[in-house]
Amino acid sequence: MAHVLILPYPSQGHISPMLQFAMGLTSKGLNVTLVTTSYITKSINTQIGNVSVASISDGYDEGGVRSASSLEVYLDSLEVVGSKSLEELIEKYNQSTKPFTCMVFDTYVPWGDKVAQSVGLPSIAFSTQSCAVSSIYHLVSKGILDVPEPGIIKEMFGLPSMERSEFPSFALKDGSYPTLAAFALDQFNGNQDDWVLFNSFDELETEAITVLQDYFHARAIGPCVPFLPKVDGHDNGYGMSLLAPEDNVCMKWLNEKPANSVVYVSFGSFASLQNKQMEELAEGLKGSGKYFLWVVRAAEQKTLPKGFAENPGENGLVVTWSPQLKVLANEAVGCFLTHCGWNSTLEAINFGVPMLAMPQWTDQPTNAKFIEDVWGTGIRAKVGEEGLIGRKEIMKCIEEVMDGEKRCKIRNNAKKWKELAKEAVTDGGSSDRNINEFVAYVNAMAE
Ligand code: UDP
Question: How far, in Å, CA of 220 to CA of 433, rounded?
Fold first, then answer.
């Protein structure tokens, strides 16, 4: 029987969709082992659904990325130590009764591909970003697309008319975060015959996926988001969470609120906002008069106005982490104020929740552009003086999404995309057909 090794970049936003994809493959009869770092496997099960989990070393078995002196140092160790450890793991499996048939590697773990080639294992790339963002990185890196200068708007390569600030920050080539930018830009190698899987669906990104198909055997297989999160108190729907959700507090509070009355606020697992921005946001949420549930990670709580976490006013609740799928699936949530990470964006689409976009960096500005101008499932808050989004703008936008003129339109679009997302992954839908094509390809390799 075919056995697929799945190698995500070791963080929440990469493991969740690739684990969801892995579960989909097991439901189609494949054996799947997800490989991640020893540090991460300490906090997740060795068997998630029918997916086995195995560990490799990144050189930071005790403390993971946070114990490294910098992200650059960590990435270097992840590649050097990880490559050796992964090679040993593949050799071990290949001498067992369950040898690997192929590897699906995250495009943020390009060394996984090198290891696969060195041991003769076929490899398939998996992108955890949108097709539009992936295609921008590829076209910019190959010198085919130039990001426009400020003030100029370009419409090309299946993208909507876009100005510079709407491109992913790593495509701007402005010298910031050089290691990460190089990583992002050089993710996609290979040629027309090489499979690249995307966590998206054909209907959502028809033009972008068509452009990608000029360069690769590109297939959209998402959204890799569970539709119905289990409500057993532990499982957040993906089957693992690296941070413990404040489940009971959060859901109990939410369950007592009327339908569409709550603004859910989260900036994902990395982003950190300046103190001044946090103050504006805190005042904007309070001033909106709506209920709000705000995730501020423990390490970020120091950026909140003094005493706000403990006393956000009678309408608010601040938690350090939430069971996000359950929150978005709850009918009390009427607006998701989001940083527009790709997982959060797809999750909101999946559950039909209108969005208020406050993108920060990387792919987020592009995702926000699509949310407002292409899919019409939300609006973007405007950045004002000093690069900040002020409290008045936040109040105005919340009002617009929850009560304003555009409310019905946004809600209808959100509902439409929710249906289309569901259709894509249901039997016979576009993503389901693409997964079947992939499964047939893998099974043929194992014969
Ligand atoms: N998430 C969560 N609880 C939270 C905040 C985020 O479970 O309180 C999950 C969220 O559901 C998503 C992931 O963390 O799957 C964040 O990924 P995304 O791509 O949105 O942002 P990133 O963290 O990569 O910036």
Answer: 10
DSSP reduced 3-state for 249: helix
CA 133 to ligand 1 centroid distance, Å = 18
Residue 240 clears pLDDT 60, i.e. is over it:
yes
From the CB of 288, is ligand 1 less than 6 Å away? no
Name which residue sits closest to atom 15 of ligand 1, judged by CA.
343
H or E stretch covering 102: strand 102-106
Residue 18 host element (H or E) = helix 12-27
Confidence check: pLDDT of 435 > 60: yes
**323 Cα to the center of ligand 1, angstroms:** 9
Contact 305, 273 (CB under 8 A): no
Q: What is the pLDDT of residue 10?
A: 96
Instruction: Answer yes or no: are the C-beta atoms of 382 and 393 closer than 8 Å.
Output: yes
C-beta separation of 442 from 435 below 8 A:
no
106 catalytic? Reply is yes
Residues 376 and 410: beta-carbon distance below 8 Å: yes
Q: Which of 58, 106, 113, 247 is catalytic?
A: 106
Give the confidence band of 89 by pLDDT, cuts at 50, 70, 90.
Answer: very high
- For helices 430-446 and 407-425, angle between their N-to-C axes, nearest 10 degrees: 30
What average pLDDT is seen over the chain?
Answer: 94
